[in-house]
Amino acid sequence: MEWTGRPLLATRRDQEVFVGFSTELEAVRKAVGARLNVLLLGERGSGKSSMLHRLTVNAASDDGWTPVFVDGHTADSAADLLLLVRERAGGGRSPRTPGSFSIDTTDALDELGRTIDSRPAGVPRLVVLLDGVPTTATAHLLFGRLRDQLWQLNLTWVIAADRNERAEYLTPPADAFFEAIVEIAPLSDEEALQLLERRCAGADVPLEVLHSIVAAGAGVPRNLVRLAQEVFVSDKQLKDEKTNQEQLRRAIDELGRPAAMLAVELAQLGPVSASDQRLLTRTGWSRPRAVQVLRQLEEAGFVESGSTIQGGRRRKLYWLSRSAP
Question: Residue 319's pLDDT is what?
């Protein structure tokens, strides 16, 4: 069995278990073929990263473009991100490597431009498959304020982003940069079942168990894999999954409207700090108020926390516990 929850990479083994998204993939490929920049939107765990890796595989049979996959979450700033694109585009390691020290964004953009311009005539054009950005502010800087400079490069962009960040990505003038928007739909029940069958190939798994996972997973690949992990690793029973989820929601509701509202936001945003601007904007709260409600949920067992390093500073992150809705 293969129940890892990581994105499927562009390896032969991973691609053998890839399922679904044919409509979305075709839409992206048509837009790229027309040299349109694409914003690929989906819920957390919907398969955005796996789709980008799938495109790197499919592009091998397409005429006219070469995929350049970049994990934007590994960058610390807009300048770092541009240097990563430059490196993946064949420019080699910059003497000012990402994260080494501060570099002006326009200088990084110039370095990327020189790398693109130095490519031999007649070679396939590059398509940047960008899996997220450090922050939505970075996205607005690159695709909004620096939009015209990016347009001058011989590059096409496919940027994967969380659906709840749609407004931030499409705030003018960045809205004009994304000439095509593709939204990822949940897997059909048939596709979800196929995903599970491929993941457990060779194992004697009762079909009714797989159908139970499909019913509880709501067509979201990450949910399907997580539930399968719990069933086959932890022997969790799914026949009462819907009842359990309703009980958890009612328990959170009993903590009050702010707690219930925050639980919904955490489900959409994933791990966040109490100072995350997305969280504060969506709730309309101050940071101290966010800390108060996060602690309330944490003390009740619905939220977990841990520390990480972001931008050279240690931050506390909060996320819904695995048993929360």
Answer: 85
CA distances from 243 to 2, 237, 250, 288 (A): 28, 12, 11, 34
Residue 314: phi and psi, rounded to 5, are: -80, 130
Whether residue 197 is found in the same domain as residue 265: no
Beta-carbon contacts of 256 under 8 Å, excluding residues fewer than 6 positions away, are none
Partnered with residue 182 across adjacent β-strands are 40
Clarify whether residues 65 and 146 are in a common domain: yes
Same domain (yes/no): 128, 171: yes
Classify residue 12 by burial, with Cβ atoms within 10 Å: 0-12, 13-18, 19+: exposed
Parent domain of 208: 189-243
Residue with tokens 């304020």, as numbered in its chain: 145
Global pTM?
Answer: 0.74
Q: What is the CATH number of the domain that holds 290?
A: 1.10.10.10
CA distance 189 to 266: 26
Q: Based on the domain organization, do 141 and 278 belong to the same domain?
A: no
pLDDT tens-digit series, residues 55-66: 988 775 556 788
Contact 70, 85 (CB under 8 A): yes
Name the pairing type of β-strands 303-310 and 313-320: antiparallel
Crossing angle of helices 257-269 and 287-299, in 10° steps, is 90
